[in-house]
Write a structure and sequence with these properties.
The complex is a heterodimer.
Chain A: H1 11-15, H2 17-22, H3 29-39, H4 44-47, H5 56-59, H6 66-79, H7 84-95, E1 109-112, H8 115-119, H9 121-132, E2 137-139, H10 145-153, H11 159-166, E3 175-177, H12 180-189, E4 195-197, H13 198-204, H14 206-209, E5 216-219, H15 222-227, H16 229-243, E6 246-247, H17 274-281, E7 289-292, H18 295-304, E8 309-311
Parallel strand pairs in A: 1-2, 1-3, 3-4, 5-6, 5-7, 7-8
Helix pairs in contact in A: 7-10
Chain B: H1 17-20, H2 39-48, H3 57-61, E1 77-80, H4 84-97, E2 101-104, E3 120-123, E4 130-134, E5 139-143, H5 148-156, E6 160-162, H6 173-179, H7 186-189, E7 196-202, E8 208-212, H8 217-223, E9 232-242, E10 247-253, H9 256-269, E11 274-280, E12 284-291, H10 294-303, H11 313-324, H12 331-348, E13 354-355, E14 358-359, H13 362-374, E15 383-387, H14 388-405, E16 409-417, H15 423-426, E17 438-446, H16 456-473, H17 486-492, H18 494-507
Parallel strand pairs in B: 1-3, 2-3
Antiparallel strand pairs in B: 4-5, 5-9, 6-9, 7-8, 7-9, 10-12, 11-12, 11-16, 13-14, 15-17, 16-17
Helix pairs in contact in B: 2-4, 9-14, 12-13, 14-16, 16-17, 17-18
The chains are: A alpha/beta, B alpha+beta.
Chain lengths: 318, 519
């Protein structure tokens, strides 16, 4: 099992937002892995304190897939009856998800937007216009929220649902995914397929980064960033050098997560608090505006701060 | 709710040290297993005082071993430290019921010093707060469980930094001050313990005492570099400094002796802010020098570079080829050197930590590189800490031992500037008694991988062979506690050990705090 490879170095602990806020090693990947190595079982609530930000993965010297480790633990907890009422509702939402039969045009880059972006006509139009300047684009008209929530809560996605969901993605030359957790899973489900997060693509566009200012806090979506860390790190480093904007990263060049989740109801009281996370991001002061890559983060941060919070695509003057 | 068992973990059911370490020859010291007398009454009193004691196997199993991965032991219970009062209560009750208490920060010991063989494990990382910063006086007050990485993050908000800390930043402030703490700038600033100005200590009998050079001086002297024997550091006032990025240079050597000579020469002249030697076997010896300011770097370029016997990378590569080309039977070693060089050096100067040729956040960079390239389930790092007069010989003899035991290994050498006024702290510590001016340490670390398995006996024999050099030459060790504690008397003599033992008995009548680490 992957957790058997953990040597207990504790680097994951240093970057874990749950540990930073609560100081309880039992809720960190190291704590869970060490407990499993010794005992073979852990307390479910500890596995649900994690917000799956993925900061622990790039620092793990053993290269353990820690997101898979966490979600596997959750699946075991759910199978054993963890929070049955909430899980039942999430399963119901997943079953109710529609998979429209959309004609997929060959050789087109597919774009899989998050649900809040799909519902926001103005911002959605901005994003598709921007992407269309770079790609021969087709937007996949597909709800993904219930799938993401199921993955986060440790619910097994039924094979039939998965097949419907993955079918249109199989032949596209590139799929742009607006959801970091889904991106992580898609890479496992379709290992031959080429995927990218939306944030990194948008922030590479001159129409975007030309408008970033030194007083901006640019909030990288942590799940997607850590999932494509090797490619994303040089890009964001350059972005910071070029624009002098502030990034939500720490001394290790890992993204400080906003700690938002799709399924707050399954998380325990020990999950990191988003307001504390935001304060940590703003620790250097001198921030006039917050630019976010993710619409969920946009909704969350807008409620937590008086500073203007704008979605990354809104930077473009188009 | 417990997540049910699907498969068992990799550790045996009860790998306690006394049984697990049998059969290891010579100077192996097995810690005694404590069997739980009065445990329930003790826990009952703590719980009545509102203190949580974790007794489930999962919570205890987290602490079953340390970074060394060779000593295994299980506490009866775990307490996550929250404040000094709670720790004081623990010690008072533990003294009364004679319950062993093992303190643990990052758990990065290698000889089982942070492993509990029964009794209570006190996890200090619950006390990980920066309490105050004095920007004018450049001091910071931190809790004892503060991890160095966290401290670096918090100080950076004000453009500040700690002065020196171990390259492994998952270690705690309290644990580090108890053993010394060596950084690549220790030849300039001293060890981490030298940066402590004052401490709040919970004594083994449960008193909360503030100590410094002016207040409770004896306690201060004993707790710093005291291997956790005389109290638990719950708060520390540290000297700090303004943050500066690092300008790094590498020089390559063929000869250990030449590299060490140059290292000592640079340290004595005080021309560098950071110095250290890192080797791949004794074939590729790298002298690392670094600077805090462009002016210091410039001075070094003008005055010192021409005096160094090492060369730059390209010239060294040509020399290396000259050595290996006529020796095809050693090409495998050459391939290994090249592979390591290609993997390691980019991680020591990663592009995303560089700005205009200067390295930022060296602490994070080095810490990750250490674990990525040296991390293994067994961290075997015997060392020798010697006066500068004995150091070269000690390293050469240790190098010969490494060659005998392992095909691939690294040496890491660094100096510590000694402070005459801190002499009382240094007694019975990694600082050898005959060192003046500087003390030098060398870590001898085999490069272990999953393909080649070494038995625990073999690894222990290697450590013994290195430590025997120390006995023979009269040096000290960074890691002389835990499993290696039998060497303390052999290397440092009965008189000094018995003096400290008498102090320990007076301070800790039940001998419960971090037992089997030193005494």
């Amino acid at each position: 099992m992957p957790y058997n490879r953990c040597h207990g170095c504790g680097l994951c602990t240093l970057v874990c937002p749950a540990w930073q806020q609560h100081g309880d090693v039992r809720e960190t990947p190291k704590g869970l892995a060490r407990a499993l190595q010794y005992d073979g079982k852990v307390i479910a609530e500890q596995a649900f304190a994690c917000v799956l930000c993925g900061a622990c993965e790039p620092v793990c010297p053993q290269q353990i897939d820690l997101i898979a480790f966490m979600t596997n633990l959750r699946r075991r907890a759910v199978r054993a009856g963890y929070r049955p009422e909430i899980i039942k509702q999430l399963r119901h939402d997943l079953a109710a998800t529609q998979f429209p039969q959309q004609e997929i045009q060959p050789d087109k880059t597919l774009f899989l937007p998050s649900d809040p972006l799909r519902r926001d006509e103005f911002r959605m139009r901005k994003v598709t216009s921007l992407l269309s300047t770079q790609f021969d684009l087709q937007v996949l008209d597909q709800e993904i929220g219930a799938v993401s929530a199921a993955l986060e809560a440790g619910i097994d996605v039924p094979l039939t649902v998965l097949n419907y969901f993955l079918a249109p993605l199989r032949d596209a030359p590139l799929v742009i995914v607006d959801d970091g957790l889904l991106l992580d899973h898609l890479r496992i489900w379709l290992p031959q397929q080429k995927f990218s997060g939306l944030g990194i693509i948008l922030s590479k566009l001159r129409q975007i980064h030309a408008w970033l200012k030194p007083t901006d806090l640019y909030v990288i979506e942590s799940r997607a960033f850590h999932n494509q860390y090797r490619q994303a790190l040089p890009h964001y480093h350059q972005l910071q050098q070029r624009t002098e904007c502030k990034l939500n990263w720490d001394l290790q060049r890992l993204a400080i997560p906003t700690a938002r989740t799709f399924t707050p109801q399954v998380h325990t009281g020990h999950s990191p608090d988003p307001l504390t996370q935001l304060r940590w991001m703003l620790r250097f002061g001198d921030v006039a505006r917050i630019v976010v890559e993710d619409m969920h983060d946009h909704a969350l941060l807008s409620t937590l701060t008086q500073k203007p919070v704008i979605y990354v695509a809104e930077l473009a003057q188009i | 709710m417990e997540i049910p068992v699907i498969e068992k973990g990799q550790l045996p059911p009860c790998p306690v040290a006394a049984d697990a370490l049998q059969g290891i020859p010579r100077q192996q010291t097995n810690a005694g297993l404590w069997h739980g007398e009065n445990w329930r009454s003790f826990v009952g009193e703590l719980q009545a005082a509102g203190i949580e004691v974790r007794e489930d196997r999962g919570s205890r199993g987290i602490y079953v071993t340390d970074a060394g991965g060779l000593a295994h032991g299980l506490p009866h219970g775990v307490m996550l430290a929250q404040d000094a009062q709670q720790v004081a209560m623990l010690m008072m009750k533990a003294q009364h019921y004679r319950i062993p208490v093992t303190t643990r920060g990052g758990g990065l010991t290698t000889e089982g010093e942070a492993v509990a063989y029964g009794g209570m494990l006190l996890d200090m990382t619950g006390m990980c707060h920066l309490l105050s910063v004095d920007k004018k006086a450049l001091t910071a007050r931190v809790q004892g469980g503060m991890l160095w990485h966290r401290l670096a993050e918090l100080l950076r908000i004000d453009g500040l930094d700690y002065i020196s800390a171990p390259l492994n930043l998952a270690s705690s402030v309290g644990g580090t001050l108890g053993v010394g703490g060596i950084d690549v700038n220790s030849a300039r600033y001293g060890c981490s313990a030298d940066q402590a100005l004052a401490l709040q200590v919970v004594t083994p009998t449960g008193d909360i005492v503030e100590c410094s050079d002016d207040q409770n001086v004896e306690l201060f002297q004993r707790v710093l570099l005291g291997y956790g024997q005389f109290g638990i550091i719950t708060e520390a006032t540290l000297k700090i400094r303004n943050y500066t990025p690092m300008r790094m240079h590498y020089f390559f050597y063929h000869s250990l002796r030449a590299a060490i000579d140059d290292l000592m020469m640079l340290d004595q002249r005080g021309v560098c802010d950071y110095t250290g030697i890192l080797t791949l076997m004794d074939k590729a010896i790298t002298l690392l020098v670094g600077f805090d300011t462009p002016e210091r770097e410039q001075d070094f370029r003008h005055i010192m570079i021409s005096r160094l016997r090492g060369c730059r990378e390209k010239k060294f590569a040509l020399r290396l080829l000259g050595y290996y080309l006529p020796r095809p039977w050693r090409w495998r070693q050459l391939r290994f050197l090249l592979r390591w060089k290609q993997a390691l050096f980019p991680d020591l100067l990663p592009a995303h930590h560089m700005q205009k040729g200067v390295l930022h956040d060296r602490s994070a960079v080095f810490s990750r590189a250490v674990w990525k390239h040296w991390g293994h389930k067994h961290m075997v790092i015997p060392d020798l800490a010697a006066s500068k007069e004995k150091f070269i010989t000690a390293v050469e003899r240790g190098n010969a031992v490494c060659k005998k035991y392992f095909p691939y290994y690294t040496l890491y050498c660094v100096g510590i500037k000694l402070r005459p006024e801190h002499q009382p702290h240094y007694e019975l510590s990694a600082i050898p008694p005959d060192a003046t001016g500087w003390s030098y340490g060398c870590e001898f670390e085999p490069i272990l991988d999953d393909e080649r398995h070494y038995s625990r006996d073999y690894l222990q024999s290697f450590k013994n062979a290195i430590y025997d050099i120390g006995v023979d030459m009269g040096t000290s060790y960074y890691r002389f506690g835990g499993m290696m504690k039998a060497y303390i008397r052999r290397a440092l003599g009965d008189a000094v050990v018995d003096k400290h033992l008498a102090w320990k008995r007076a301070a800790d009548p039940a001998m419960i705090l971090n037992r089997d680490v030193i005494f």
